[in-house]
Design goal:
The chain is about 45% helix and about 10% strand. By secondary structure, it is of the alpha/beta class. The protein binds 6-O-phosphono-beta-D-glucopyranose (BG6) and magnesium ion.
Length: about 220
């Protein structure tokens, strides 16, 4: 097994639970368009780009919009979403994440963010996490959505580390597939019934250490 030199993190659902704010903003748009949108429906939008999310939302509501109206609706949803995330506080960082990032800093492991969100820089700033990341690749820097590995490969490239020495942390299936497509190790963050194809799975970062993860990955790769 290659020596692990970098960790690349998805943002939404891995570092902070922004899904609830995406949900409130999409629900408001759905209601304005005359249909309802449930939390269960919202599961389908995790890890999915803004425009693709809107397409899924319209499919759920049985609505069609012109390309111009789709742009307007996506912009409106984003304004509402930004109103929520402008109020984010560091207390909303998910349990164990800060300790894990601090451990990586102490061990000289490089770190990158690999997120589909165009709001990633604002979220990192609100959570006061900027100094924990050596590279930030967000939705404004990539042309191909996960499961394409572009976002993670760009992260590795910016860090100057080969993909085979990176671990990706992901809560969405498309992100796990992206990590695999990029030839990186992948740790799934979530429940086994929702995620496949990871090398190791954790429910979240509470009480999880980098050492422990590397040991688990070694076992998997010796099989
Ligand atoms: C992903 C989220 O990280 O970013 C998706 O899981 C979201 O739900 C996507 O649609 C795009 O985010 P944004 O902030 O650019 O609309
Ligand atoms: Mg995510």
């Amino acid at each position: 097994m290659n020596k692990i030199r970098a960790c690349i993190f998805d943002l939404d659902g891995v570092i902070v639970d922004t899904a609830k704010y995406h949900y409130l903003a999409w629900k408001r748009l759905a209601n304005e368009l005359g249909f309802d949108f449930t939390e269960e429906d919202n599961e389908r939008l995790k890890g999915v780009s803004r425009m693709r999310s809107l397409e899924i939302l319209l499919e759920i509501g049985g609505k069609e919009l012109t390309a111009a109206d789709m742009e307007k609706s996506a912009a409106k949803k984003n304004e509402w979403y930004v109103e929520y995330i402008e109020k984010l506080e560091p207390e909303e960082i998910l349990p164990g994440v800060s300790a894990f990032l601090t451990e990586l800093r102490g061990k000289g492991i490089k770190t990158a963010l690999g997120s589909a969100s165009k709001n990633a820089p604002l979220i990192l700033e609100r959570l006061k996490l900027n100094s924990y990341f050596d590279a930030v690749i967000d939705g404004t820097k990539v042309s191909n959505a996960k499961p394409d590995p572009e976002v993670f490969l760009k992260g590795a490239q910016e860090l100057g580390i080969e993909p085979e020495s990176c671990i990706v942390f992901e809560d969405a299936q498309a992100g796990i597939d992206a990590a695999r497509n990029g030839n990186m190790f992948c740790v799934g963050v979530g429940a086994p019934e929702n995620l496949n194809g990871w090398d190791h799975l954790i429910p979240g970062f509470a009480n999880v250490t980098f050492e422990e993860i590397v040991n688990k990955l070694k076992l998997v790769n010796l099989k």
